[in-house]
TrEMBL record:
This is Chalcone synthase. Keywords: Acyltransferase, Membrane, Transferase, Transmembrane, Transmembrane helix. InterPro entries: Chalcone/stilbene_synt_C, Chalcone/stilbene_synt_N, Polyketide_synthase_type-III, Thiolase-like. The chain crosses the membrane at residues 6-24. It comes from the Eukaryota. It comes from Adineta ricciae. GO terms for biological process: polyketide biosynthetic process. The keyword Transmembrane applies. Residues 268-415 form the Chalcone/stilbene synthase C-terminal domain. Belongs to the thiolase-like superfamily. Chalcone/stilbene synthases family.
């Protein structure tokens, strides 16, 4: 009799506690799912000298080719066409005009890119910290630095930035290089994961690139020989910038830009495309970038599925999404508009950044995002010939960040605007 009672007692206790445990797990999951990571203080910066695309072209012909007289007629035409078709009006490079596209010795190159990276990174990081009212920079727990402008050098850039910005010496650091134009959105995904882990985590992200310096390290030009077309394209498109943001579960120290949180982050490698984009260094320390003509099409093929997967979980209507796309050139932006069936205005910040600053590699991701968020919450809406801006910014409740890089790989981040 007694042992039977004990059996019932045990059974009930175990039953109830497992029920309690399961409800607890459910509540925990629900609570966990509800936690949000905010994008605070988003900021960007550029080197000091502003050049028109015509000035860049003129200096490319002058300094890289040694003047028009060294060029074959058809190559001269090709240069004219590529610089024109880039859709870039202005861009920012730290070099003086005479030094644009001038070949640098390896050491001169590494010193120049490293120093410039530190300067523009500090500028955007300081602005991001200042934008977060009430944030003491001492409270930042993690720093992530990303760039495609890598060199063989140590200590790595994150340490220099900790020192320059006088951050806490116990800060957890990470330095990410060579992932290409998708760096910004990949690292936003990472910062989201770190911030989700603990409500006290405050993560500073900085992504910077000095891509115009590829133009100072081109494989040599030979007088009156056919020009390497890749070198023309690189020189016409790649420019410099830095973006920074701070990630945390609290939006308490926010300015107007931080009513933006991350819903989802997604990555993929497109099968059989590893040969389509490669960057290589040669014996004479020149750097060569190869981009296959098929590269954009591989991206356009993969994108519709990738984007519906990103939106489906939250049943989001693409109509309410603004697209912050890597500024990889007019062909990329146009192709994305077509393959996703978008209105021109859904890509307004990508077009704006493309024409005002150029192909910024991985740092473009944050720069494009920053422009749209700023416009959305500001009284002053942009207005400019040639770019189609939203008639009603209230249409946009989400931003889809999309970027592509060597692999060929795609990164997507879904942001919700509040
Ligand atoms: C960038 O330009 C500014 C202003 O011309 C100059 O003070 C600074 O030293 C330059 N930085 C590098 C690394 O060249
Ligand atoms: C670089 O040097 C190595 C060793 O001398 C040689 O095998 C290779 O072909 C060189 N590469 C080029 C592009 O000249
Ligand atoms: C812009 O830069 C990235 C490499 O960083 C490249 O994948 C993309 O194709 C470039 N765009 C053009 C048109 O060169």
């Amino acid at each position: 009799m007694k042992s039977k009672n004990l059996f019932y007692y045990l059974a009930i206790t175990i039953g109830t506690s497992s029920l309690l445990y399961r409800s607890f797990q459910l509540i925990k999951k629900k609570f966990f799912l509800k936690r949000k990571v905010y994008l605070n203080g988003l900021s960007c910066s550029f080197p000091l000298n502003c050049y028109s695309q015509d000035e860049m072209k003129e200096m490319f012909i002058e300094n890289y080719c040694g003047g028009k007289e060294n060029l074959l007629e058809k190559d001269f035409d090709f240069i004219q066409r590529v610089f024109q078709a880039s859709c870039i009006d202005t861009s920012y490079v730290n070099l003086s005009k005479n030094n644009l596209f001038k070949r640098m010795k390896r050491e001169e190159y590494t010193n120049y890119v490293k120093q410039t990276l530190i300067e523009i990174s500090c500028k955007s990081a300081k602005n991001a910290i200042e934008n977060c009212l009430h944030l003491n920079s001492n409270e930042i727990t993690h720093i992530i630095f990303g760039t495609m402008t890598g060199t063989i050098a140590a200590p790595s850039m994150d340490i220099h930035l900790v020192k320059e910005l006088q951050l806490n010496s116990n800060i957890k650091r990470l330095n990410v290089e060579s992932m290409g134009c998708l760096t910004g959105f990949r690292l936003i995904g990472l910062c989201n994961d770190i911030a989700l882990q603990d409500e006290n985590n405050i993560v500073l992200l900085i992504v910077s690139d000095i891509r115009s310096a590829l133009g100072n390290q081109l494989t040599p030009f030979e007088s009156n020989q056919p020009i390497d077309k890749s070198n023309v394209i690189i020189s016409a498109l790649f420019r410099d910038s830095s973006g920074a943001a701070i990630f945390s579960q609290k939006a308490i120290f926010s300015n107007e830009l931080s009513y933006c949180h991350i819903l989802k982050h997604q990555s993929t490698i497109i099968p059989d495309t590893i040969e389509l984009g490669r960057l290589k260094e040669f014996n004479d320390s020149s750097i060569h970038l190869y981009l296959d003509k098929q590269l954009p099409y591989a991206v356009f093929d993969a994108l519709p599925n990738f984007v519906s997967k990103l939106l489906n979980e939250y049943q989001i209507d693409i109509y309410h999404c603004q697209f912050a796309v890597h500024t990889g050139g007019p062909k990329i932006i146009r192709g994305i508009k077509e393959c996703l069936n978008l209105d021109d205005e859904q890509l307004c910040s990508s077009w704006y950044v493309m024409t005002h600053y150029g192909n910024l590699s991985g740092s473009s991701n944050l720069v494009v995002l920053e422009h749209f968020c700023r416009w959305k919450y500001s009284e002053n809406k942009p207005n400019e010939k040639g770019i189609c801006f939203p008639k009603d910014f209230n249409r946009y409740k989400y931003i889809v960040g999309l970027s592509f890089g060597p692999g060929i790989a795609v990164e997507g981040v879904l942001f919700q605007l509040e």
